[in-house]
């Protein structure tokens, strides 16, 4: 936009009036922000940061409480399981017995001994001969399965071979209404007039369930020879 204005002092040379140019598009100077507005923005940012930090701390506290309760629950379950095993196994291995390498699966290897008192037909096993007994329970001559799976079960006995001699590995299970199941058996016959010493070995693979009980049964434990603990053995291990 242009405007003309006469010079009160007179005219320019040649009689031409002075001309002044006014630019209407010129920008106004930028004003600084108000102090109150900056303070309000700063307070809002501080409030937001405080809220986020508080929320993160609350989350960490809740997570810590959850982990603590979970740890306490697992500790209680482990203690209960240990008490249950101790109650089921009144004759634990000697305190000096230990494993050089901890087994990766359930395993048991029991031996005889001169301190063992057998039943009439059911054989017993020594807990003083450093038996191998891991994740299985020994009770009243039987091995109690604690974990379902396939097991190799075996037994070897040393006996006086005179007349007939029967050697069995039997199982008691809740899965079978009849109760006793014969897993393995061997029968030997010899003349009554001859008295010789002989061995009988049984072994096989079976699928066993938790709380199944396996034990060794013979026709007469009076014929069992107990000079050396390793001459009579009984065990099982998970495959």
From TrEMBL:
Residues 106-239 form the THD domain. One of its GO terms (biological process) is immune response. Its main location: membrane. It comes from the Eukaryota. Keywords: Cytokine, Membrane, Transmembrane, Transmembrane helix. InterPro entries: TNF_dom, Tumour_necrosis_fac-like_dom. GO terms for cellular component: extracellular space; membrane. The chain crosses the membrane at residues 48-71. It is found in: Membrane. GO terms for molecular function: cytokine activity; tumor necrosis factor receptor binding. SUPFAM superfamilies: TNF-like. Pfam families: TNF. Belongs to the tumor necrosis factor family. This is THD domain-containing protein. The lineage of its organism: Eukaryota, Metazoa, Chordata, Craniata, Vertebrata.
């Amino acid at each position: 936009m242009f405007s003309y204005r006469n010079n009160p002092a007179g005219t320019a040379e040649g009689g031409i009036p002075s001309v002044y140019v006014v630019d209407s598009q010129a920008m106004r100077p930028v004003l600084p922000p108000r102090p109150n507005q900056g303070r309000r923005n700063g307070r809002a940012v501080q409030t937001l940061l405080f809220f986020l930090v508080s929320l993160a701390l609350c989350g960490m506290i809740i997570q810590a409480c959850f982990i603590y309760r979970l740890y306490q629950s697992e500790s209680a379950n482990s203690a209960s399981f240990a008490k249950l095993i101790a109650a089921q196994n009144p004759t634990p291995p000697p305190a000096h017995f230990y494993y050089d390498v901890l087994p990766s699966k359930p395993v048991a290897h029991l031996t005889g001994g001169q301190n063992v008192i057998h039943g009439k037909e059911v054989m017993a096993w020594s807990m003083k001969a450093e038996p191998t007994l891991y994740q299985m329970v020994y009770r009243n001559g039987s091995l109690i399965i604690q974990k379902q799976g396939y097991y190799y079960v075996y037994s070897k006995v040393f006996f006086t071979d005179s007349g007939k001699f029967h050697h069995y590995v039997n199982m008691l299970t809740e899965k079978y209404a009849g109760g006793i199941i014969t897993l393995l058996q061997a029968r030997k016959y010899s003349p009554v007039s001859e008295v010789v010493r002989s061995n009988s070995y049984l072994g096989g693979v079976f699928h066993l369930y938790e709380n199944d009980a396996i034990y060794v049964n013979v026709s007469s434990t009076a014929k069992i020879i107990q000079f050396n603990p390793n001459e009579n053995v009984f065990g099982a291990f998970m495959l």
